[in-house]
Design a protein that fits this description.
The complex is a heterodimer of chains A (about 220) and B (about 290).
Chain A (H helix, E strand, L loop, with lengths): L5 H4 L3 E3 L3 H16 L5 E9 H6 L5 H9 L12 H8 L2 E7 L9 E8 L4 E10 L2 E7 L2 E5 L4 E8 L4 H11 L4 E8 L5 E8 L5 H9 L3 E7 L2
Parallel strand pairs in A: 2-3
Antiparallel strand pairs in A: 2-4, 4-5, 5-6, 6-7, 8-10, 8-11, 9-10
Chain B lengths: L5 H11 L3 H13 L3 H24 L12 H10 L7 H18 L3 E3 L9 H13 L3 H21 L4 H4 L1 H19 L4 H14 L16 H20 L8 H14 L16 H7 L2
Classes of the chains: A alpha+beta (about 220), B mainly alpha (about 290).
Chain lengths: ~220, ~290
C-alpha cells in the first residue's frame, strides 16, 4: 500500500465534477491508451453500475475520450474532448450495461483499436479520489494502478524469461517495488507486470525486447 | 517523521516545538524525497487554483453540466456586498466562495479535490474569506493547507473520505475538520486546539448522508459546502476561545467511520434515497 501524500488529500488538481467519475475514469483511459502501440483510431466503451447511470452529468464520457487522447486529469481540453477526438481522427462509441451487477459500481471496459487494426481490451475500475485499478488486459486478470512506473511484458511462459527481465533491470540499477506474473495457461502466453519506485530507462526496455521469448514490453508512465 | 494518528502528531509537535503544518511538510519531504521548496511550491500552486476558481465563480454565471446549479455564488456575493446579512460578512463570503467552487467543479472547470471534488468548496471558502479579513500572506495560507492536509491524511488513513463509503460526513465533514484545524493554527492556536476544532467539526456534521440529486455532484452538495465552511469558522473560534471538545480527535475519526459504515447504502452516493428520492428530484431526473 502506497503511503498517503499530502497531495493525495489536498489534490489532485483536476477538472471536475467528480474525482471518481471524471478524474479516475480519465486515468483508466490514459493507462489503456499507453498500452497501445501506434495511433489509436477507435475507442469503444462499455460503462457499468454508477458509471452507466450518471456518466453524462459527470462528464465521464468526455473524460474517457480525453484520457484516450493522452490528456491529463487537469487538462482544460477535457470539456471539449469530443471536438478534439474529431480533430485527432478518433472514432468512439459508448454503451451501458446495467444488468451485470457482478462488477464494481465504477467499472468501464475499453476496447482500443490502432491504425493496423490491432485491438487492446482493458477493464478498469475507478476506486475513488482520482485513483484507479486496471483489472484486465486482453484476456488476463491483472492488478495495476499506474501510481508507479509500470512495465508490462507479454512473454512466452518458459524458464529463464523472468530472470532475464530482472537482470536487464538490475543492470540499470532499477529497484522493483512490485512484480506479478500472470498466464493464460502453462507454456502459452504469460504476462509480467513490474512496478518500480524510480524511472525505468528506455535502453533497459529495449534490451528486454531483444529476447526472442518476449513478445512485447510496454513502459507505462503517467 | 511519520505519524499515524492525532495523538502521535501532537506528541511530535510537542517534542519538536513545531506547529502541525511544519510536521506535515517534514513528513512529505521525508516521504517523497522531494525538496522542501518543491513541496511548498506545489501546495502554493494548489492554493492558486482554488483562488482562481472561487473568484471566477462569484463574478459571474457558470452553468453546470448536469444543469441543476449555476450562478448561486454570484447572487450571494452581490447580496453580501449590500452589507445587511443575517450570518455576517465573513461567513457570507466564505459561503459564496464555497458554493462557487462547486459551480466551477460542476461545469468541468479546474479545481483541487480537498479532500474530494464534491467537498472542494469548503477549504477555499473558509481560507479565502479569512485571508481577506485578516490579510494573511500567501505563504501563511500555503502553510495552513499543510495543516489541513495533516488532518485529511489522518482521516483518510484511519477512516475514509469517500462518500460511497462514509456518506457526506466523510467528504464535507472531513473537509470542514481540515479547514477548522488549519484556521485555528492560522489564528495562533496550539496543535491541541487545532485537533479539538477538527474533532468538533466532525461531531457537528456526524451522520450527514450523501444523497446527490440525479447522482450528480450538484445538489445538495453545493450548499453543504457552505455549511462545511461556516462550521469550520465556528469550530475554529470555539477551539481558540478555550472550549475543548470532549471527544478527542482520534476517537471522533473512529466514530465517524463507524457511523459511516452503518449508513444504509441508499444514502451513500447511490442517489436512491434522501434528497435524491424526493418527488421534486425524481421529476427533474426524469425530464
Amino acid at each position: 500500500m502506497k503511503e498517503i501524500s499530502v497531495f493525495d488529500v489536498i489534490g489532485p488538481v483536476m477538472i471536475g465534477p467528480s474525482s471518481s467519475h471524471t478524474a479516475g475514469a480519465l486515468k483508466i483511459a490514459l493507462l489503456a491508451g499507453k498500452l497501445v502501440s501506434g495511433k489509436i483510431v477507435r475507442a469503444d466503451f462499455i460503462l457499468y453500475g454508477s458509471f452507466a447511470k450518471t456518466y453524462h452529468g459527470h462528464g465521464t464520457d468526455r473524460a474517457l475520450i480525453a484520457g484516450t487522447l493522452g490528456f491529463g486529469a487537469a487538462d482544460v481540453r477535457i470539456r471539449d474532448s469530443f471536438d478534439w477526438a474529431k480533430k485527432y481522427g478518433l472514432a468512439y462509441s459508448f454503451h451501458t450495461n446495467e444488468t451485470d451487477r457482478d462488477v464494481h459500481p465504477n467499472t468501464v471496459d475499453i476496447t482500443l483499436e490502432n491504425e493496423n487494426g490491432v485491438k487492446t481490451f482493458v477493464r478498469g475500475v475507478s476506486v475513488g479520489g482520482g485513483n484507479c485499478r486496471i483489472e484486465k488486459i486482453d484476456g488476463i486478470s491483472v492488478d495495476l494502478t499506474g501510481d508507479y512506473t509500470t512495465l508490462l511484458i507479454r512473454q512466452h511462459d518458459t524458464a529463464g524469461v523472468v530472470a532475464y527481465i530482472t537482470s536487464c533491470l538490475s543492470d540499470k540499477g532499477v529497484n522493483i517495488a512490485f512484480m506479478r506474473l500472470y498466464r493464460e495457461s502453462r507454456g502459452q502466453t504469460a504476462y509480467t507486470v513490474i512496478e518500480t519506485d524510480g524511472d525505468i530507462p528506455n535502453d533497459a526496455v529495449e534490451k528486454i525486447r531483444l529476447n526472442p521469448e518476449i513478445q512485447s514490453a510496454m513502459l507505462v508512465k503517467i | 517523521m511519520n505519524f499515524s494518528n492525532g495523538e502521535a502528531l501532537l506528541n511530535l509537535c510537542q517534542q519538536d516545538n513545531l506547529p502541525i503544518s511544519e510536521e506535515m511538510i517534514r513528513r512529505e519531504v521525508e516521504l517523497t524525497g522531494k525538496g522542501r521548496d518543491a513541496v511548498k511550491k506545489q501546495m502554493a500552486y494548489s492554493y492558486t487554483v482554488m483562488k482562481t476558481a472561487a473568484q471566477r465563480a462569484v463574478k459571474g454565471e457558470i452553468r453546470s453540466m448536469g444543469g441543476l446549479i449555476g450562478g448561486e455564488s454570484h447572487l450571494l456575493w452581490k447580496y453580501n456586498s449590500k452589507g445587511r446579512t443575517v450570518s455576517g460578512n465573513l461567513t457570507g463570503r466564505a459561503a459564496a466562495y464555497a458554493i462557487g467552487m462547486l459551480e466551477v467543479n460542476a461545469s468541468m472547470g479546474l479545481i483541487v479535490a480537498a479532500p474530494t471534488a464534491g467537498s472542494s468548496g469548503v477549504i477555499p471558502g473558509a481560507f479565502l474569506a479569512v485571508q481577506e479579513e485578516y490579510g494573511f500572506s500567501e505563504e501563511q495560507m500555503t502553510a495552513a493547507l499543510f495543516n489541513a492536509g495533516a488532518v485529511g491524511y489522518l482521516i483518510t488513513r484511519n477512516a475514509t473520505v469517500a462518500g460511497a463509503e462514509g456518506g457526506c460526513q466523510a467528504e464535507v465533514g472531513a473537509a470542514s475538520a481540515m479547514a477548522a484545524s488549519a484556521l485555528t493554527e492560522l489564528m495562533g492556536g496550539s496543535p491541541e486546539q487545532c485537533l479539538s476544532a477538527a474533532a468538533c467539526a466532525l461531531a457537528n456534521l456526524l451522520g450527514l448522508v450523501c444523497d446527490p440529486v440525479g447522482g450528480l455532484v450538484e445538489t445538495p452538495c453545493q450548499t453543504r459546502n457552505a455549511i462545511g465552511a461556516s462550521n469550520a469558522l465556528l469550530c475554529a473560534d470555539m477551539a481558540l476561545c478555550g472550549i475543548n471538545h470532549l471527544i478527542p480527535f482520534d476517537e471522533m475519526v473512529d466514530v465517524m467511520y463507524r457511523v459511516g459504515r452503518s449508513i444504509p447504502s441508499e444514502l451513500r452516493e447511490t442517489a436512491l434515497s434522501g434528497c435524491a428520492a424526493s418527488p421534486t428530484a425524481c421529476r427533474l431526473c426524469h425530464r
